[in-house]
Specification:
The chain is α/β, with parallel strands linked by helices and 368 residues long. The chain is 38% helix and 20% strand. It is built from 14 helices and twelve strands. It starts with a strand and ends with a strand.
């Protein structure tokens, strides 16, 4: 008998909502249908503005929370309509929400996602599991990354040590040892597309450097690369997580102010920064890795994939597509899977990844 769950995810790029319908009745999840749902232009503008708030808890954020929730619900409803699935047959929705601020290392750590789950439940008629990060933070963890438990379930293999690499706005790795008794670890390695997307928006007037074609035509500025890699985040020991609070335009301009490096070559160097920081992390914390399985939108950046291979010679690097799950839907699928874990009262975090002092149930349950 099918166990239908929906996963809803919007990442740091804020380019829209990924909605995936999964059958979780067996150990290997099956993606039945997917839907990409763009934010309306005005809502996207307001979300971008919310990122700049020095103090996130302002009056407008509550209204924005409901508006984003309604947009997430619209994504779920569109997915169900397009796939001709009765909402009554869906067990639950796992909604990650939209991250506004992630501050795991301050005196009172928190991670703020909006997209009101009660609004989603009311608009869909489906149970919603949301607010996945808070319980891990209360247990002393970073609250991120949370996909590694899912990566272990669907991408680990008993015959080889692997790494799952997610390339969203931020890059994160999950170590997947062949030995099932060995600890799974993982952390954010640094920027993936967030700085490259910003630079493309400034100089190409497009949302991204499609396929890395612009970056491929420039030259790596080795001096600039060395200075950026010297940032303390890259050498900090895990557990660690980061976001656009740290790797943003201000961070970039600290390094490029006054440089005469052409804009295209800065893009090339940003791509190399992503590839090198990932490769360094894999070598330092996943010794023995034979295969890197890439998911997230960055899997479509051909130049980045080429540079990853150049920086990790001798390792197999392939898309999660080759392992039965599209790179575009891994994260949405992960939150559907985490919702099922929550309803079954099974822990969803991996303390060896987040640094939490214990496994905990992730997410709160919201009924319509």
């Amino acid at each position: 008998m099918a166990a239908l769950f929906i996963g809803l995810m919007s990442g740091t790029s804020m380019d829209g909502i990924d909605a995936a319908l999964l059958d979780l009745s067996s150990s290997q999840p099956v993606i039945l249908a997917t839907h990409s749902h763009a934010y309306p232009a005005r809502l996207h503008e307001r979300l971008q503005a919310a990122l700049q708030l020095k103090e996130p808890l302002q009056a407008d954020l509550s209204a924005l929370d409901r508006e984003v929730g309604a947009c997430f619900a619209a994504a779920a409803n569109a997915l169900l309509h397009e796939s001709a699935v009765d909402p009554a047959t869906v067990t639950a929705i796992g909604s990650h929400g939209q991250t506004i601020r992630h501050e795991p290392d301050i005196a009172q750590p928190y991670s703020l996602q909006i997209g009101n789950p009660d609004t989603i439940a009311a608009h869909t008629g489906i149970v919603v599991v949301a607010d996945f990060r808070r319980a891990d933070i209360e247990a002393g963890g970073q609250g991120a990354p949370l996909a590694p438990a899912f990566h272990r379930a669907v991408l680990a293999h008993p015959d080889e040590d692997r790494v799952a690499l997610n390339l969203g706005g931020i890059a994160n790795i999950t170590t997947l040892p062949a030995d099932t008794l060995a600890a799974v670890t993982g952390f954010d390695t640094g920027p993936a597309s967030t700085l490259m997307d910003y630079w493309a928006q400034q100089h190409l007037n497009t949302s991204m450097d499609t396929g890395g074609q612009w970056a491929a035509g420039g030259q790596i500025d080795r001096t600039l690369l060395t200075k950026m890699l010297a940032d303390s985040y890259f050498s900090a020991a895990p557990p660690k997580s980061t976001g656009r609070e740290y790797f943003n335009a201000d961070w970039l301009y600290r390094f490029i102010a006054g440089l005469e490096t052409p804009a295209q070559s800065i893009q090339t160097t940003l791509c190399e920064l992503t590839a090198r920081s990932i490769a360094d992390a894999v070598r330092d914390f996943a010794e023995g890795t034979r295969r890197v399985i890439v998911c997230g939108g960055g899997a479509h950046n051909d130049y980045l994939m080429t540079r990853l291979q150049a920086n990790l010679p001798g390792m197999a690097i392939d898309s999660s597509d080759a392992h039965g799950i599209s790179p575009d839907w891994v994260e949405a699928a992960a939150f559907a899977w985490l919702a099922q874990r929550r309803l079954e009262e099974k822990a969803g975090n991996l303390p060896s990844v987040t640094g939490a002092d214990r496994p905990v149930l992730l997410g709160n349950i919201h009924r319509h």
